[in-house]
């Protein structure tokens, strides 16, 4: 038979679950938004296996805090609301519908991830909400989706150009993963190679979740490439590079900006010294990025700004601020409606310190095409070729 | 031909680490009859402690010792206070308890350390010798030697020492366990301590290559599970051979078929082995009592 | 004389209901169980209809997870085996439904296709799996669940791989609009669950159900009595897969977008964990389980740092384990039964 103690525990457990349930129902229903505020929403992996990426949203939040401290746009402050979807596209619709219907978000800015955004793309369209995801994927673009972030294709092409023109290396191999991070990068690189009349010596597929990359390293070595292109997060790139170093294979590497972090230098020091990154942002510690540095120090002092994500988020938010400025104009100085925000993006040119030379046309909603080439010298990231 | 050679040797080196990760599970299984899903998290927590020591400037040996010690203590605490007391409700409950503990540790690590991958020192990156085209580093040699030592000691311990034999008896026969009484529970708690320490040891060879996050060691667990199951939970040698086998076969599938077929191939191998030889390639068949 | 018979009757009823509570089946408690299922479903739907869109969406996902918990419960409660591969069946059901809708099929046929295909694959996988026992079943099912995301990527020409599969919008069933946080989706999903749950309950009470109990208790003894043990076990696993396949179809309709990231091995573990917490032998417990998994992690975010939800889940699980096998649902059933007896016993005092 059940002891009293155990029964109490069981009742307490049920009660606490029920309480959380009812409390959340209450919390959701209450709270109206201030008319002068502009509500911008985003979701990201606040928790879960990809939580390392969340500093992107901290960077974005810092930009909006900076804006609000300076008085907002025509007195209108931006309320940036972030919800956790754990990078799981099954959870994103729930969080985004809360953002739109309960929080009153009129714009989605810097939502993290191609998959998560794809899961809510149609929903945002049905609600007429402008979405600017933190993704460079071309397949997300439509009437209500615009991108600031550079697509991976032009980055791959940029690296090919640098390898051929500056490094004078033409035996080029591409290591790619069969996902949104690897394939567009590879396609862009292959297109550029074709344009230059060069054939890649190898295209090697890998799985980012694998525990061992010795097979891929062996294949790359056998191809005899002196420049290897690869696009993924630092831990994965480091593993591929270490597997190569281990078998005595030390080519030059060309990587996309996701890998440009001190972690890569820590995890794969020899290879990192021979890696060139296509980097579409300002370097976080450069003199031009002083506003970013100040904003992060003031509004998000616990965030480690050495990686690429914080400046990526800050840059995206910077672009979104420009969209909102135009929207406020369209609203005659008042708080813009979601229709006005959507309209503001059409045909807009953004050219700030952070977002370089981006024009959205009717046919092209994709992000910034230009990037600089960055390399590692003495453990620091320095620019070796300017924005092109 | 060189690709084959590199794939095989690469698989060998990583296979040794799979086997080491599996050793921690074998110890627990041979004493308690179930598998713990918390080993990856115990390893990660121990590694975080090691990282703190490292950041304080301690030499590698201190960091390694600290990691292993933390694993042992953590394993002992979890075993004594949570899992072993729940064993009376059945093996399923015990396994679930390990899952629960794993979740709690992971949550704690996320809160305290965050999810950013952190670099962890290795036992040594300098090349010791070359095997064909492969540079074998100090860390690789240490992992192979450690693995051999661990398995030799475990083999001896379970086969010859009275504690080891008692541990096996406790698992093989519930009557023996009853007769041994309190001592059975004590043995089980001890096996948790050893298992935790071994998880820490395996972690020392995983973290330097993969970076340390609350999730890095768990990815290894699957391969370690498979190595142990295929090799036979009862057999120390089996886990070693199977670990290397899994490592090599994964590489061969990746090279000659498709990289994205590796996981399902591992599943099929597991299933086939379990069907043909249910107690692993090297395991013993226990007597069925009707 | 009538007084004596009524005392005997009451004692008989008492022992039957106790036994029924422990076994998870039995005529004596069938009425109570059906009522509990209906109450749970109606509660979930009413809360959903009256609340924010976010909570409504969560509850719709709760129905999906409830079906998964039911699938786990069938195997756990009937055979005493651990199944960690329910996430694999959700994935199969979801993708089949998605592909069928893309090909222009009506919602009803797409769902049927999901159930049938998942059941067939479940049947094939079950044949080897039933030869395993205990911890090995857990491991084999876990490895299957782990192999699923990569396999989806491998099958890219069919599944869209890592890019994902977007379902056509504007799905309706009998004129009721479906998808996301729409009320129609909520209602439809719970209707599907109720049907699956009541059919499972009916099967449990039938001759087949009796055989399953025998096999679950002792395979050798059941074999002696002429029960075809292997086929009974395969049938249970196949039913489990079919139920999960239905859940997968609803998953696809609710989320509207499928990708390999949505079906990691941890989902299989979480589904099993909530099934245990809520009670594996209980149909209405599956509703509790599903809602727990769908609602608590996402809604608790507003109160505590998100990282702590993992800790809370682990603690809840430990508490549930401490209160003994059978989970919360069984405890609640005990409470109801005790209350019922107190009320009736008072009248006969």
Topology diagram in text:
The complex is a heterotrimer of chains A (about 400), B (about 290) and C (about 350).
Chain A: H1 4-29, E1 38-44, H2 55-69, E2 78-84, H3 92-102, E3 107-112, H4 114-127, E4 130-134, H5 152-165, E5 172-177, H6 183-195, E6 202-206, H7 214-223, E7 227-230, H8 234-246, E8 252-256, H9 262-267, H10 269-272, E9 275-279, H11 290-299, H12 309-330, H13 338-345, E10 349-350, E11 358-359, E12 372-377, E13 380-385
Parallel strand pairs in A: 1-2, 1-3, 3-4, 5-6, 5-7, 7-8, 8-9
Antiparallel strand pairs in A: 9-12, 10-11, 12-13
Chain B: H1 2-32, H2 39-55, H3 60-86, H4 91-113, E1 127-131, E2 134-137, H5 138-159, H6 162-172, H7 174-180, H8 182-210, H9 216-231, H10 236-256, H11 262-276
Helix pairs in contact in B: 1-5, 1-6, 1-8, 1-9, 1-10, 2-3, 2-4, 2-8, 2-9, 3-4, 3-8, 5-6, 6-7, 6-8, 9-10, 9-11, 10-11
Chain C: H1 2-23, H2 27-49, H3 53-79, H4 86-102, H5 107-129, H6 134-154, H7 156-159, E1 165-166, E2 172-173, E3 176-177, H8 183-205, H9 207-217, H10 219-224, H11 229-255, E4 257-258, H12 265-278, H13 283-300, H14 308-322, H15 327-348
What is the CATH fold-level name of chain B?
A: ABC transporter involved in vitamin B12 uptake, BtuC
Compute the number of helices of chain A.
13
The helix content of chain A, as a percent range, equals 40-55%
Order of helices and strands of chain A: HEHEHEHEHEHEHEHEHHEHHHEEEE
SS content category of chain A: alpha/beta
The tally of beta strands of chain B, per DSSP, is: 2
Largest interface (CB within 8 Å) is between: A-C, 47 and 53 residues
Strand adjacency order, main sheet of chain B: 1-2
The CA-CA distance between the termini of chain A, in Å, is: 76 Å
CATH topology assignment of the largest domain in chain A: Rossmann fold
Taken as a percent bin, the fraction of beta residues of chain A is 15-25%
| Number of individual domains of chain B | 1
The N- and C-terminal alpha carbons of chain B lie at a distance of: 53 Å
User: Averaging pLDDT over every residue of chain A, what do you get?
Assistant: 87
- What is the 3D shape of chain A? elongated
Going by CATH, the architecture of chain B would be Orthogonal Bundle
Features:
heterotrimer, B: 290 residues, mainly alpha, ABC transporter involved in vitamin B12 uptake, BtuC, C: 349 residues, two-stranded antiparallel sheet, two-stranded antiparallel ribbon
